[in-house]
Amino acid sequence: MKSNPLKKVMGRNRFKFHEEHYPYFITHSVVGGVSIFDDPLIAKIVLDSMKFMNTEFKVKIYAYVIMHHHVHLIVEAEDIVDKIRKFKSYTARRILDSLKERNRSIIQHRIKQARVTQKVESQYQLWQEGSHPIQIDSDKKMESCIEYIHYNPVNAGFVEKPECWCHSSVRAYLGTKTNEFCSVY
C-alpha cells in the first residue's frame, strides 16, 4: 500500500483526507483543552453520534476512545470529510444545548473564552478546527493506532488497564459487555 503525506490546506488549520478507501486515525479536541467528557451525559452524546455515524452514514469505526477533552477515532468511509464535519457540527450543537439546559455556565464560559476570535457566526466553538487525519496504510500501523487509542487512558494515568476505561472500544476487542455509564474516572 502506498502512503501519502498529509497536505495542509492554504490559510486554514485543516488537513485533507487523500484517499478515502483507507482508514484514518483522527483526533477531535475541545477548544482550550476544556474538560467536558467527564460528564457522562456529554460523553453519551458523542457515543450516540458515533453509533449514528456508523449505522446511518455507513462510517466504519475501527476503534475509539473518549478522553476528558478529546476523542480519538479510527474511521473509514466514502465522503469522510463531509461526514466528520456533520458529526462535529451536530455534537457541538447538542453538547452546547445540554450545557445550557443544565445551567453549566462555568464550562460554557470557558468554551466561549477559548473560541477562535475570527469566528463571527457563533459565540461558541466547541471543537478545535481540523481532525488531523493520519492515513493507516498497513496492518502494523493499524495495530499501533488501535493500541495507542486503547492505552490512552492508561498512559494519562486515569486507569491501570485499558478495559477499565468506560468510553472506549477496547471491550469490544476483548469480547466483554460495554457499560456506557460506568464511573471509572
Overview of this protein structure:
The protein has 185 residues and is an alpha+beta fold. The chain has a domain at 24-136: Transposase IS200-like (Alpha-Beta Plaits), CATH 3.30.70. The chain has five helices and four strands. It has helices spanning 40-56, 80-101, 105-114, 139-155, 170-174; strands at residues 24-29, 60-66, 70-76, 134-135. It has a four-stranded antiparallel beta sheet, with helices on both faces. A hairpin with a 3-residue loop joins strand 2 and strand 3. Helix 1 (40-56) runs antiparallel to helix 2 (80-101). The N and C termini lie far apart (39 Å). The relative contact order is 0.20. The model is unreliable at 1-15 and 179-185 (pLDDT under 50).
Q: Count of helical segments?
A: 5
What is the CATH superfamily label of the domain at 24-136? Transposase IS200-like
Give the tally of β-strands: 4
User: Helical amount among residues, as a percent range?
Assistant: 25-40%
Q: How are the strands of the largest sheet arranged? A: 2-3-1-4
N-C termini distance:
39 Å
- Strand content is 5-15%
Question: Helices and strands: which structural class?
Answer: alpha+beta
Shape descriptor: globular
Q: What's the CATH class of the domain at 24-136, please?
A: Alpha Beta
Q: Could you give a short account of the major beta sheet?
A: 4 strands, antiparallel
Architecture of the domain at 24-136 in CATH? 2-Layer Sandwich
At the fold tier of CATH, the topology name of the domain at 24-136 is Alpha-Beta Plaits
Q: Uncertain runs with pLDDT below 50, 5 residues or more?
A: 1-15, 179-185
- Radius of gyration (CA) equals 16 Å
Q: What is the N-to-C order of secondary-structure elements (H for helix, E for strand)?
A: EHEEHHEHH
Mean pLDDT: 83
